[in-house]
Task: inverse folding
């Protein structure tokens, strides 16, 4: 832990300013939804519900779906 | 501290998720595939028609596994980065790195470990296809419940902290969370559906491997994202030695 060569070591952690919600909201909405869509395709597509027909997606991600804990079949 | 910061953190979160998925993938391949193969052997020995294989086992256990793991890593990395952006400076006096570690820990607990205690991961051959819809709905319901209760407990802890102190407030919030989750688990229907004769040791090894995969993923994410986020939020002062004269 020889870190003391750096300039004035603050003794207490300065509180970080929160990111304004206005800046966060658009990213959270668009990317939040996009990420959930990705999760859906890895975790549930062609299992309980299907957007695409067939079994290709289910079979391709089969092992990951099982090991990540999603109900697969 | 604006939209560009959020964008940078989001991109770095997805990147950290992708990178963390690599060791998780190795863990899944070397530790998880054994129990999966054992379960498939049980299935073919005991069963009904198996249909033609659309994707061969060797592809499923390599390229298929990798695709699923890496996409999952990117997706949860992005979600965790957004949660981090919200949590930063709002959950207590934590550094960027500590906030990232706490976010990863919370995500592991709330999005995986707590739901999986009620609806554990099942290998192939375990689970009746007729109940898949119900089991999927219950699994996602359990995730949503666990995340919401986690958020509620955090808010409770933050409210109590000024009066009770951080330690007592955190312990109380943790106990409240545990109690609420226990009640939810007692009342939700069971998901167990294990075929007769399925080896208990295979089931145990599979479930343990599944927990391991997620633990590796989230530990990797917390460490990597903490490193990447700190460099965005508190850039290191350039060279703390003698200032270099500019030519």
Result:
């Amino acid at each position: 832990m020889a870190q003391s060569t750096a300039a004035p070591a603050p003794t207490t952690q300065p509180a970080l300013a929160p990111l304004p919600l206005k800046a966060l909201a658009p990213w959270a909405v668009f990317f939040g939804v996009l990420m959930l869509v990705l999760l859906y395709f890895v975790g549930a597509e062609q299992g309980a519900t299907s957007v695409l027909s067939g079994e290709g997606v289910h079979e391709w991600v089969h092992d990951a779906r099982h090991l990540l804990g999603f109900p697969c079949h | 501290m604006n939209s560009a910061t959020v964008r940078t953190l989001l991109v770095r979160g997805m990147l950290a998720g992708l990178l963390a998925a690599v060791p998780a993938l190795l863990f899944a391949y070397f530790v998880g595939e054994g129990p999966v193969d054992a379960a498939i052997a049980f299935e073919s020995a005991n069963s009904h028609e198996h249909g033609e294989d659309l994707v061969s086992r060797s592809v499923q256990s390599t390229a298929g596994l990798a695709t699923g793991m890496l996409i999952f890593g990117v997706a949860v990395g992005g979600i965790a980065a957004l949660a981090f952006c919200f949590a930063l400076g709002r959950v207590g006096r934590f550094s960027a790195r500590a906030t990232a570690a706490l976010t990863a820990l919370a995500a592991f607990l709330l999005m995986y470990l707590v739901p999986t205690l009620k609806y554990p991961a099942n290998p192939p051959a375990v689970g009746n296809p007729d109940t898949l819809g119900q089991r999927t709905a219950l699994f996602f319901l359990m995730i949503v419940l666990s995340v919401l209760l986690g958020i509620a407990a955090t808010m409770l802890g933050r409210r109590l902290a000024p009066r009770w102190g951080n330690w007592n407030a955190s312990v109380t919030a943790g106990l409240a969370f545990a109690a609420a989750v226990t009640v939810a688990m007692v009342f939700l229907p069971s998901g167990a559906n294990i075929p007769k004769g399925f080896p208990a040791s295979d089931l145990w090894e599979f479930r343990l491997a599944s927990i391991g995969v997620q633990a590796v993923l989230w530990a990797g994410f917390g460490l990597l994202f903490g490193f990447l986020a700190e460099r965005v939020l508190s850039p290191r002062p350039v060279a703390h030695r003698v200032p270099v004269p500019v030519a």
Chain B touches chain A through 69 residues (CB under 8 Å). The mean pLDDT of chain B is 91. Residues 32 and 209 of chain B are 5 Å apart (CA to CA). Chain B has two domains: 1-45+59-125+196-234, 127-193.
